Amino acid sequence: MLNFPKKTLKFIKRHLLRQQKEVEKNLKEVSEDDPVKSPALAETSEPGTDSYIADTHAKTVVLEQQLRNAKTGIRAALLKIKNGAYGKCEKCGNQIEIGRMLAMPTAQYCVSCSKKKFNPPRR
Ligand SMILES: [Zn+2]
User: Fold this and answer.
1) What's the gap in Å between 62 CA and the centre of ligand 1?
2) Where are the beta strands (DSSP E) in 40-114?
3) Distance between CA 68 and CA 35 in Å, rounded?
4) Is 35 a member of any domain?
5) Does a structural domain hold residue 93?
């Protein structure tokens, strides 16, 4: 049984919803800034700016991927709040420290599991 105080959970949920809105907005802006996806922008660029377009496109792709990942994480966290599984480590099933969840509301693993995940033991 997870013992997140209701108030804390509510606070985190509000924070996540706000973050979700922000990410959606950024995603829209990013795709509008992509010269490859925006013919108007590509047409107005002068000859010889192909590399500029390619550069901008490459950056956009990276940013878009990051935003999509953030969106997925937020959605998963909101779903877990709904299901009452929020704050549970997806690896060991222990409750993740509240402080960690507040600092990183989309955290999926507890501190020790995420350490294991990102720093695998050397062979
Ligand atoms: Zn864990």
Assistant:
1) 29
2) none
3) 19
4) yes
5) no
